[in-house]
Write a structure and sequence with these properties.
This protein has about 150 residues and is mainly α. The protein has helices spanning about 10-15, 20-25, 75-95, 105-135, 145-150. The chain has 5 helices and no strands. Helix 3 runs antiparallel to helix 4.
Length: about 150
Amino acid sequence: MNNIAKTETETACKEPAKAHNYFWTIFNQKCPRCRSGNLFPDNNSYHLRNLFKMNERCPVCGQITEIEPGFYYGTSYVSYALTVAFSASTFVAWWVLIGLSTTDNRLFWWLGINATLMILLQPYFMRLSRTIWLSFFVKYNSRWQQENDTA
């Protein structure tokens, strides 16, 4: 018999649930409830046609990803916090590693490099902010399989 590839749902139902770390779940854009299903059908953030396309439900646990209409408007606050934290950390790293001076253009080099990095990382930050926003409202449930069976 041919080896038939198992779907994500079949694998998750037969194998014991492996609880991933919260940060691993966020950075890999997984479902906050089961921590194993993909929130986005396309894992690559730089396929810009599919940037905002999300699964309607988690393919593993069935958690709804858009809880109510307009749910993701709040991600702008999360995205803002992410970009400010990123800029602050690159500024501190630049200051420690290269230094700042008023006599040359080091500050302007940092501004240019930081702006370029922000533009390049914006698709990832947008998806990351959606994942973080959803995790504020949907908590991890290690017993999601039992709850789905009883419902």
